[in-house]
Amino acid sequence: MTATLKDKTVLVVGRGGGIARAVTTAxxxxxxxxxxxxxxxxxxxxxxxxxxxxxxxxxDLTDEASIAALGKRIGTVDHIAEAVLxxxxxxxxxxxxxxxxxxxPLT
Length: 107
What we know:
Blueprint: E1 9-13, H1 18-29, E2 33-38, H2 41-48, E3 54-58, H3 64-74, E4 79-82, H4 91-94
Parallel strand pairs: 1-2, 1-4, 2-3
C-alpha cells in the first residue's frame, strides 16, 4: 500500500486466510489498527492472535442483529474491506460442494 493508514481503524470481514489475510496484513503494515470479523472468531483468533494491531470479532453477515451487535462493540471505523467470496454452485457441473466456514453447503 502506498497510502498511510496511520491512526486509522480498518474492519476486514472474511476468513483468516487468502484475500482477507492479505488485506489485513497490508492494512496493518500501512499503520492501521485492524479488526477482523467473521463467523468463526476462534479461527480468526488462531490466525491473528499473536499479531499486534489485529483483533478478531464475531459477525454473521446473514444476520442483521449480528451486524448491529458488531457495530456496537467496535464503534466507528475508517475503512471497511469485505473479503468474502459468496459462490453458488451446481454440484452436477463442478462435482464439488462448497461450504461456508465448513458449515452448510452452498446450493
